[in-house]
């Protein structure tokens, strides 16, 4: 599904990112720190661990001004060690 971005200045859009990675202590911290370092606001976070698969799943709602900012943070999160998937929901 393609994102729709308006032309209004100083507006932001809530985007949900679905992040999957190997579970380790600090995984959620690492993801949220990257987002905070880009000075983006987090509107909500849901995380869970699938212990049998040893994976963490994080759904984070972030406020972004445009698709370029979303793509930049998506690439940074995907580059974290042990992250296996990052996608827009």
Describe this structure in words.
- The protein has two helices and four strands; from the N terminus they run βαββαβ.
- β2 (41-50) and β3 form a beta hairpin.
- The chain has a single domain (24-88), classed as ACT domain (Alpha-Beta Plaits, 2-Layer Sandwich).
- With 89 residues, the protein is α+β, with helices and mostly antiparallel strands.
- It has a four-stranded antiparallel beta sheet, with helices on one face.
- The model has no long low-confidence stretch (mean pLDDT 92).
Instruction: Using the coordinates shown, work out and report the CATH topology.
Output: Alpha-Beta Plaits
Measured as a percent range, the helix fraction is 25-40%
Radius of gyration: 13 Å
Order of helices and strands: EHEEHE
- How many separate domains make up the residues? 1
How much of the polypeptide forms β-strand, as a percent range? Answer: 35-45%
CATH class: Alpha Beta
Separation of the first and last Cα atoms: 9 Å
Quick recap:
The chain is built from 2 helices and 4 strands, in the order E-H-E-E-H-E.
List the defining traits of the structure above.
alpha+beta; Alpha-Beta Plaits; elongated; single chain; 40% strand; four-stranded antiparallel sheet; 89 residues
Topology:
Elements: E1 13-22, H1 27-37, E2 41-50, E3 55-64, H2 67-78, E4 83-88
Antiparallel strand pairs: 1-3, 1-4, 2-3
């Amino acid at each position: 599904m393609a994102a729709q971005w308006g032309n209004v200045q100083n507006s932001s859009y809530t985007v949900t990112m679905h992040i999957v990675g190997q579970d380790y202590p600090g995984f959620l911290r690492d993801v949220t720190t990257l987002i905070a370092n880009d000075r983006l606001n987090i509107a909500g976070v849901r995380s869970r661990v699938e212990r049998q698969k040893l994976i963490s799943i994080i759904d984070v709602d972030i406020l972004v001004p445009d698709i370029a900012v979303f793509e930049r943070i998506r690439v940074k999160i995907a580059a974290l060690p042990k992250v296996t998937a990052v996608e827009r929901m």
